[in-house]
Every structure is written in structure tokens, then in C-alpha cells.
Design goal:
Blueprint lengths: L32 H9 L1 H4 L3 H13 L3 H6 L5 H29 L1 H20 L4 H29 L5 H6 L3 H17 L6 H9 L2 H9 L7 H6 L3 H12 L7 H16 L8 H10 L1 H18 L3 H6 L1 H7 L5 H22 L3 H4 L1 H28 L4 H22 L1 H10 L2 H11 L8 H18 L8 H9 L5 E4 L2 E4 L6 H4 L1
Helix pairs in contact: 3-7, 3-9, 5-6, 5-7, 5-24, 6-7, 6-10, 6-11, 7-24, 9-10, 9-19, 13-14, 15-16, 16-24, 16-25, 16-26, 19-22, 21-22, 21-25, 22-23, 23-24
Length: 503
């Protein structure tokens, strides 16, 4: 007979009752002192993805800076590939630090660990005296960026007020664009400097958000879910009362959230006892976790193989291929395209709470598919007929449009979806899998592959709009759960009568 506290796969799906109403006026949350403080403090984990956006943009910008090209001998071919591969290789190493640092010592220590690695990498990059030193610096930046990203997203999901969780978490990946904008304008403003400062200044500035995190991360509250997992229930309740109930311990949302966290974590495995082996076994031993694993892997593939690699790391060669070769042209296009990306990402971060997650994935894939076809066609026409400037400029236009199309489903929406489908004891470990980078470079492959991605999202990704973090687990783990499409999403058939109560 299974243990009733741990045998979650044999439990019936709980009825998804409507969550209680808070006593707070969340439509005007700014005057609420503690909630206002919490939302401001969330800027610290929101900076986690900044370094990744900074790196993608700075590599485009630096490849357009003559002094950088000259100093490192104009890297091309395999050498340029090593430059670009160093970052994701560092990220592969970094994923093994996410869970140990965040689960054993808390989310704050996890953020500090990643930020320290980013600071070290930025210092080495800004002071690089040769190619080897530059590559090593990017390994450190890659590792640190993945750690802070892998910890920052679940932290926001676990700490934000339940009514604001979806938007707060969706905003996480929008800071990728903030990093891209800062890097783009840094290189645009420094490329005129006559000397190595033209690339050393923006390289060193990459440490700024990590320094901010290292200083202020100790002032943000611990995750209530992590505190409960460590047996520190009173501290967890105090955090919820202060920030989610404005000091009112009788707030129904606070009491509901606290009891739900305790009951759910009691039914999950003890994080401290989970080894790498037991974690891998857990991923494949239960139907709900097998489904989660497939979604994590598929989402990672979608996020890397939808054509965004050539926009992030190979923009400069693409622009040269359509005769936009000057430093001014390339750095200006890089900087302005990142601004377009950020503005659209901010707006799209508000959509998951209103439209649902799954629908945005599908719309985004369709838009990217059309745009990649247009980029491929424009590049082919210009390659065969160089005087045809219209074809070359059309490529630039669609490069500008690609980021909004990607952001629609795979920026804030993806940053929200992955943490919320993972139960607490798998959350940081599951995100470690997600941050393995996959690189691809052939345009025509993207055209076909996005169709495959669309099919995977449509058939497997359930909708998570409405339920709480703990209730979402029932969509995956209920015994004999069968899923049916409803309003563009998937819910267990036995829970259809409860859908209206959680919309």
C-alpha cells in the first residue's frame, strides 16, 4: 500500500474550487506598502535574464566594432563559432549548479552564486588580453547567466502575490530585451572610440546588473515554499502575512495559500533526499512527470530552433550579406531592433493572464514560420541578384518583425509556463534541463521545424490559466486523467465541471 503523503500518482484529482477572494484592493495595489515593497524587490530576480540578453546583443555589436575585429584578428569560421559557442558551453556547466545552490541553501544563495560568476566573467572579458582569455570569460558568463535565470524564474513564481503571479513571472524574460537594448546602445555609443575601450567598456558593463543582485539579494524575502520545505513553517507564514496580506494573518488568500503549500509539499518528496539518480528516475517513472519532461525538452527545442539563433548571434553576418556593412548601420540596427523587441515583450507579458498560455505558443509559432519564410526568400533573391536592394532591405524589415513574433509565445509566456508546470521538488531541477542551449544555422530547416514545433505544442501542452501552482499539479498527476480541449486548452475530463469556477 502506498504512503498517502507521497503516493501522489494514485490520488484522485482534487476539485478545482475557486480560490478565496483577498481582502486587499489589488486593482490599486501601489498604496499597499508591503505589496508595493515586494513588487519593487522583484526587480532583483528580474535582472537575472539581463545578462543573457546583454550577451546576445553585445556579440552582434562587438562583431561590428572595427577595433574588436582588429584586436582579435577578425575571427571567422570555426574561430567565430568558438566565440559564440563558449557562452552556451558555460551554460551547460552552470545548469548543474542551479538545484544544489537553490534547493539546499535557498533561492537567495542561488541568485548570489550565479551573479558572482557573471561578475567574474565580465571582469575577465573587459580585461581580456588574448583570444583564450576572452573565451574563458564567456564560459563564466554563460554559467552564471544560466544559474541566475534558473533560480530567478521559480523565485518570482513562488513569491509573487497569487493574483499577480502570471504577469510577474511573464515579465521575467522581458528583461532579456532590456539587456539587449543596453548592450546595443553601449556598442553604438562606444564604437567610435579609437582604441580597445570601444569594446572593453561594454564588455565590463555586463557586470552591472550582477553587482546590483549581489548587493541587494540579501534584502529580498525567502521563498515561502522553500521555507516550508525546510520545516520553517512559521517563517513562511510570516512572509505570506506580510507581503500577501498586508500584515493581516486572517486574510483568506494568505490562509488558503499557506495550507495549500503545506499540503502539497507534504505530498512531495523531500528535496534534501533527492539525488541526481532519484531525480532522473522520477522524471520517467510517473506519467505526469514524463509529460512534464517532454514539455520541458520540447519547449527548449522550440525556443532555440525557431530561427532566433541567427537573430541573436549572427545578425552582423546577415547584414553584411545584404550589403549593410558599416559600423554605424549595423550597431544602429542592432540597438533599435532590441528596443522594438522589448516594447513588444512588455505588452505580451500581460497576455497569458487574459488569453492563456497554450494559445500564445501556437500563434507565435505561426507568425515565426511566416517571417522565416520571408527572410529566407529575401536572402535568396538578394544572393542571386545583388542590385535588388528591395530584397535586401526586406530581410532587415523581417528581422525587426521576428523578435515580436518570438516574444508573443516564447518570451514572458515561456518563462511563466515552465516554472508553473513543475511541482516544487522538481522546479529548479527541471529548469536545469530547460537551459541547455541548442544552436542551429540553416534557414530552410527552421521553416520545416516550426511546423513540427506547432504540432508538439498543440498536442501536448495543457492550458494553465486559472488554477494555482498547487492545483496545476493535478492536471498532470491525477490517476487516469484524460485531457480534452476546452477554449483552446487541455483540462482533465473529470474536472470539466470545475473549469468555470477557476477561470
Amino acid at each position: 500500500m502506498g504512503n498517502p503523503d507521497t503516493d501522489t500518482e494514485t490520488k484522485e484529482a482534487p476539485q478545482l474550487a475557486a480560490p478565496p477572494e483577498t481582502l486587499l484592493d489589488l486593482s490599486h495595489w501601489w498604496p499597499l506598502k508591503n505589496l508595493r515593497t515586494l513588487n519593487i524587490m522583484l526587480l532583483i530576480p528580474l535582472l537575472s535574464i539581463f545578462s543573457q540578453g546583454f550577451d546576445g546583443s553585445i556579440m552582434n555589436g562587438l562583431q561590428s566594432v572595427s577595433h574588436w575585429q582588429t584586436y582579435f584578428g577578425t575571427p571567422t569560421g570555426s574561430l567565430l563559432g568558438i566565440f559564440n559557442a563558449a557562452y552556451p558551453l558555460g551554460g551547460i556547466c552552470g545548469v548543474f549548479l542551479i538545484s544544489p545552490s537553490a534547493d539546499m541553501f535557498g533561492r537567495r544563495v542561488g541568485l548570489a552564486t550565479g551573479a558572482a560568476l557573471c561578475c567574474l566573467g565580465a571582469g575577465l572579458q573587459g580585461g581580456a588580453s588574448n583570444i583564450a582569455m576572452f573565451i574563458i570569460s564567456r564560459l563564466f558568463i554563460g554559467a552564471g547567466s544560466v544559474v541566475v535565470a534558473g533560480v530567478g524564474a521559480p523565485y518570482i513564481t513562488e513569491v509573487a502575490h497569487p493574483a499577480q503571479r502570471s504577469t510577474a513571472t511573464a515579465l521575467f524574460l522581458t528583461f532579456y530585451s532590456v539587456g539587449s537594448i543596453v548592450a546595443g546602445w553601449c556598442t553604438f555609443g562606444t564604437f567610435r572610440i579609437d582604441g580597445t575601450a570601444s569594446w572593453r567598456i561594454p564588455s565590463t558593463l555586463q557586470a552591472v546588473p550582477s553587482v546590483i543582485q549581489l548587493i541587494f539579494v540579501w534584502f529580498i524575502p525567502q521563498s515561502p515554499r522553500w521555507l516550508v520545505s525546510q520545516g520553517r513553517n512559521e517563517e513562511a507564514l510570516a512572509v505570506l502575512v506580510k507581503y500577501h496580506g498586508e500584515g493581516n494573518s486572517d486574510d483568506p488568500v494568505v490562509q488558503h495559500e499557506y495550507e495549500e503549500i503545506r499540503n502539497t509539499l507534504r505530498a512531495e518528496h523531500d528535496v534534501s533526499q533527492m539525488t541526481i539518480f532519484s531525480f532522473l528516475v522520477e522524471l520517467v517513472s510517473k506519467p505526469g512527470n514524463r509529460r512534464r519532461t517532454f514539455i520541458i525538452v520540447w519547449a527548449a527545442i522550440c525556443s532555440q530552433m525557431s530561427g532566433n539563433a541567427f537573430v541573436s548571434y549572427y545578425l552582423s553576418p546577415i547584414l553584411r550579406s545584404v550589403c549593410l556593412k558599416s559600423d554605424l548601420q549595423q550597431t544602429l540596427i542592432n540597438a533599435t531592433s532590441q528596443m522594438v523587441s522589448w516594447f513588444t515583450a512588455l505588452y505580451f507579458a500581460t497576455l497569458p493572464a487574459r488569453l492563456g498560455r497554450r494559445k500564445l505558443f501556437l500563434w507565435s509559432l505561426v507568425a515565426m514560420w511566416v517571417i522565416v519564410i520571408c527572410i529566407t526568400a529575401g536572402s535568396a533573391v538578394f544572393a542571386n541578384n545583388n542590385p535588388n536592394k528591395a530584397a535586401g532591405y526586406s530581410v532587415v524589415v523581417f528581422l525587426y518583425l521576428f523578435s515580436p513574433a518570438y516574444n508573443l509565445g516564447f518570451n514572458g509566456n515561456l518563462g511563466l509556463y515552465i516554472p508553473e508546470i513543475l511541482p516544487f521538488h522538481l522546479r529548479t531541477k527541471g529548469l536545469s534541463f530547460f537551459y541547455f542551449d541548442i544552436q542551429w544555422r540553416l534557414y530552410i530547416v527552421f521553416v520545416v521545424w516550426i511546423v513540427v514545433e506547432f504540432a508538439g505544442v498543440y498536442l501536448v501542452f495543457p492550458e494553465t490559466k486559472g488554477p494555482t501552482l498547487e492545483e496545476i499539479a493535478s492536471i498532470f498527476d491525477a490517476r487516469g486523467a484524460r485531457f480534452r480541449h476546452i477554449e483552446g486548452g487541455l483540462v482533465p475530463k473529470r474536472d470539466l465541471e470545475h473549469v468555470d469556477s477557476v477561470k
